[in-house]
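Q: what sequence does this backbone want?
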């Protein structure tokens, strides 16, 4: 390992960068899809309509109870069938990438739902009542008063969950998706430099996550001030 020529990373750079792009796609898709789905589930969970609240609760409980690797395998088996039914046999879609994105979005919706629901319930009830007294409808009060404050209060926790999502993208190896981590391992196995490549990949994850964690700490200190 000590004799490893790190300049060989230059040769492997195209493969590693291609994997990094896949990791970025999955991460951003999971964050955006999870926030949208999580917000919808959180609103259903506090809407006061029992069937909708029950649906939100069951969804969140189900997906938070299942390991991510199993969710990815489920959708790797389900998504291709659904796409073939819609697009036919001639599909110009990366099935593994589509499966990973669908699985991550549905799973992260459950986690974001609990974060956002806690943010909504943590606000003083007087905020919504004041908005209603000004003539807003319940939906307007939620959209213009409650949700913005809930997101602002929950921003550090939301960013922390984004860091977790980035770390969890490495689990797409279970469906053989060529992300940053898998490509780094493949290069190491091919060139007989597995340990150095694992150290390199680990350092990259550490650097990115540590930087984002610093942003979270800054936001937490500002909100506490």
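A:
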């Amino acid at each position: 390992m000590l004799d490893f020529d790190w300049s060989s990373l230059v040769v492997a750079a195209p493969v590693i960068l291609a994997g990094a792009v896949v990791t970025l796609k999955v991460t951003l898709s999971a964050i955006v899809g999870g926030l949208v789905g999580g917000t919808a589930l959180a609103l259903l969970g506090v809407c006061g309509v029992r069937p909708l609240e029950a649906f939100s609760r069951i969804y969140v409980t189900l997906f938070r109870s299942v390991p991510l690797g199993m969710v990815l395998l489920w959708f790797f088996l389900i998504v291709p069938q659904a796409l073939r039914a819609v697009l036919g046999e001639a599909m110009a879609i990366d099935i593994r990438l589509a499966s990973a994105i669908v699985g991550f979005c549905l799973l992260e919706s459950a986690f974001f739902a609990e974060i956002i629901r806690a943010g909504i319930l943590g606000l003083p009830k007087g905020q919504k009542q004041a908005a209603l007294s000004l003539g807003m409808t319940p939906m307007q009060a939620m959209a213009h008063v409650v949700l913005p404050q809930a997101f602002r209060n929950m921003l550090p926790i939301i960013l922390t969950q984004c860091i977790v999502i980035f770390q969890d993208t490495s689990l797409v190896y279970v469906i053989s998706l060529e992300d940053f981590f898998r490509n780094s391992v493949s290069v190491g196995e091919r060139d007989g430099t597995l340990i150095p490549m694992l150290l390199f990949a680990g350092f990259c994850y550490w650097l990115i996550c540590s930087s984002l964690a610093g942003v979270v700490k800054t936001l937490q200190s500002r909100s506490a001030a």
